[in-house]
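Coproporphyrin III ferrochelatase
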Amino acid sequence: MSVSDQAPIGVLVMSYGTPESLEGVEAYYTHIRRGHPPTDEQLEDLTSRYRAIVGGVFPLRENTNRQVEALQRRLDELAGQGRYVCYQGLKHAAPFIEDGIEAMSRDGIERAVGIVLTPQYSSMSVGGYLKRAREAAERHNVAFAGVEKYHLHPVLIEALAERVTAGLDKAGVSADDGLVLFSAHSLPARILEMNDPYQDQLLETSKAVAEAAGISRWQFTWQSAGQTGQPWLGPDIVETLNGLAKENVKFVLVTPVGFVSDHLEVLYDIDIEAKRHASELGLALDRIQMLNDDPKYMQALADSVIGAAGRYDEKADAAGASGV
C-alpha cells in the first residue's frame, strides 16, 4: 500500500440543516424555497413552530454538531486517530455541502466518503445530497465515495428496538396492548413512478425493528408533508390517528425511523401537533427517544463509512491487477 493510501480520508457528514437562531429562520426558509422569500404568513408560521419548541434558546444545531463529533471519536477508536477526518455539510444552512468539500480540499484531503444522517435512500433526499457532494468533489479533485443506505445495519436496528421496548415499558404498556406507529418524512408521491426505494426501505427498517423488539402490532405512516400543491405520500399521521381511534386503540408509541435526531419534525410535528390531535381523540401518544449521538448509531455510521472507504482499496487492487 502506498503512502497516499495511508493519507487521511475526509468524511462529509450531511444533513438537512437548521437555523442557528430564530433570527436566521427567514434566510433558512428562503434557501429552502430556492431563493424565493416566504410570505409574512409563511415566515410567522415557521418561526412560531421554532418558538414553541426551543423556548427562546436554539439547541437544534448542536444536535448535528454532537453527532459529527461523536462519529469522529468512534472512527478514531476503530481506525486510529487521524485516519478519518470528519467535516459537516448541510443542505440548507452553512456550512453547506459544498463548504465541507472545499474545507477538505484546503486541508489537503484527496479522498472522501460522504454519509447522510438519514438511513434510507431516496433520489430526492440522500441522492440529492450525494450528487451535490460528488459534483463539488470533482471540482476540487477529491475522490469521492458515497454511502447510499444503512437502513438495515444490525446495530442501528438494535438501537431502535431498544428504544421501542423502553418506550412501551415507560408507558406501562405491553407489546400486545399498545400499537407502535413507525413514521418518516413524506415526499412527493411522484417518487412511486420513479421506482424510488425510499418507501420500501422504510418498511424494511420498520419490520426489522418490530421483529427485534418482539412487536406484532405496528403500522407505518407518513408525516411533515410539504405544502406544494402536489400529492405527497400518505396517509399522514393525523389521518392514521383518526383511524386508530375508531379501532379503539388506546396507546400509540410513535417511532420515527426516518429521523435520527431531535429537530422540528419530531419536537413539533409529533410532540406538539400529533400529541394534541391524539389527545382530542382520547388517544394516549408518546414517542421513542431519538438516536442523536447514541453510541450504537455512531457504530452503524462508522461501519458504513469504513465500508465505503474500503471501495477505494478494492478499486486500487483491481487497477493494479489490470496493469492500469
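thats it. The longest strand covers residues 9-15. The two ends are 16 Å apart (CA to CA). bye
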